[in-house]
Design a protein that fits this description.
Layout lengths: L4 E7 L3 H19 L4 E4 L4 H7 L5 H9 L2 E6 L14 H11 L4 E7 L12 H4 L3 E7 L7 E8 L5 E6 L4 H16 L4 E6 L5 H17 L4 E6 H10 L6 E4 L1 H14 L7 E8 L5 E7 L16 H13 L4 H16 L18 H13 L3
Parallel strand pairs: 1-2, 1-3, 3-12, 5-10, 8-9, 8-10
Antiparallel strand pairs: 4-5, 4-11, 6-7, 11-12
The structure holds 3-isopropylmalic acid and magnesium ion (MG).
Length: about 375
């Protein structure tokens, strides 16, 4: 049997330093659990632009299509702000998502008990929180045509983006949400703006259709996305699975991240259709960005990236028990009070470095094996 293959794309900003900790975790699973991966590393985002003049080389795209799963750190940074739109670091990530057709983005927001006080919300609002946001990732306003900046008739300019969804695009991501709900609390809340957008009306009707025809056993509700944002901070535990479009999902998942204590905690899985080997096309990445303000200082929290690898174990490699092992190790370490600066609630205690957090998680893993 061949080892499963991974393409590691650390990217920009804090990407490389958090990915360095993930690499040590991957090695740990090889050494201690006999779970070996063939790991290739390559460039994405600004790091790729610096070498190739594009944020994702064709050769990297080919590798991404070939491997069993891609792990990505983060892309972007002020150094690249002035670049033409087509070669901005973010375009590299968007190309990966689009060409791999990773239409379902799973963003689980779980509040570890040890972090309930690190959230900006009251403990009882967030303690025990476990929700799953399913964000549509390859369509909507991120990709709709026409798009661009054009001259208008008054000598000014007009900026255009198009929100566009087809029946099948909505149905396939809705199915992912319903499937997940069946393995959780069996509830889906769909969010759009059907009160102002035709694409929102279509979204609502198609989600309802999938429910009525294929998943009548799952409880379905609909909410306008603005009200959904409000409810997420008012009483987030009312939700189980939330399914929403690309743009609303981007916003709502950042909101949900803060419920868990820090953006540095939230992992994600972007999944497409199954490949020949039965595994879904997949890319795993933390929800946080490249955080250029703290890059290279050992301040970054590697947990979101490490937990993204746990999602890879679960969703790509059928290693649910090993994913649990890794998630429990993270929880143990947080329970012991190890905190990177983003998680510090009280002054006075020295924060852990990125490497220190990685060390502590590896030590906790050692205790389990
Ligand atoms: C995310 C990010 C990306 C997005 C950026 C980096 C293109 O914010 O994954 O949430 O907008 O999708
Ligand atoms: Mg985002």
């Amino acid at each position: 049997m061949q080892n499963p293959s991974l393409l590691v794309l650390p990217g920009d900003g804090i990407g490389p330093e958090v990915m360095a900790e993930v690499t040590r975790i991957i090695e740990w699973f090889g050494d201690r659990r006999g779970l070996r991966f063939d790991v290739e590393e390559d460039l994405v985002g600004g790091a790729a632009y610096d070498v190739h003049g594009v944020p994702l080389a064709d050769s990297t795209m080919e590798k991404a299509q070939r491997v069993d799963a891609v792990l990505l750190g983060a892309v972007g940074g002020p150094k690249y702000d002035a670049l033409p739109f087509e070669v901005k670091p973010e375009r590299g990530l968007l190309r990966l998502r689009k060409e791999m057709d990773l239409f379902a983005n799973l963003r689980p927001a779980q509040c570890f008990d040890a972090l309930a006080d690190a959230s900006s919300l009251k403990r009882d609002v967030v303690a025990g929180l476990d929700i799953m946001i399913v964000r549509e990732l390859t369509s909507g306003i991120y990709f709709g045509e026409p798009r661009g900046i054009f001259p208008d008739n008054e000598g000014g300019r007009v900026g255009i983006n198009t929100q566009r969804y087809t029946t099948e695009e909505v149905r396939r991501v809705a199915r992912v949400a319903f499937e997940l709900a069946r393995r959780r609390q069996n509830r889906v809340c769909s969010m759009e703006k059907a009160n102002v957008m035709e694409s929102g009306i279509l979204w609502r009707e198609e989600v309802q259709w999938v429910h009525d025809n294929e998943y009548p056993d799952v409880e379905l509700s609909h909410m306008y996305a603005d009200a959904g944002g409000m409810q997420l901070v008012r009483w987030p535990k009312q939700f189980d699975v939330i399914v929403t479009d690309n743009l609303f999902g981007d916003l709502l998942s950042d909101v949900a991240a803060m419920l868990t204590g820090s953006l540095g905690m939230l992992p994600s899985a972007s999944l497409g259709a199954p490949m020949e080997n039965g595994r879904p096309k997949a890319l795993y990445e933390p929800v946080h960005g490249s955080a250029p303000d703290i890059a290279g200082q050992g301040k970054a929290n590697p947990c979101a990236c490490i937990l993204s690898f746990a999602m890879a174990l679960r969703y790509s490699f059928d290693q649910g028990a090993e994913a649990d092992r890794l998630e429990r190790a993270v929880e143990t370490v947080l329970g012991r009070g190890v905190r990177t600066p983003d998680l510090m609630q009280v002054e006075g205690k020295a924060p852990a470095t990125t490497r220190g957090m990685g060390d502590a998680i590896l030590a906790a893993l050692d205790e389990t094996a």
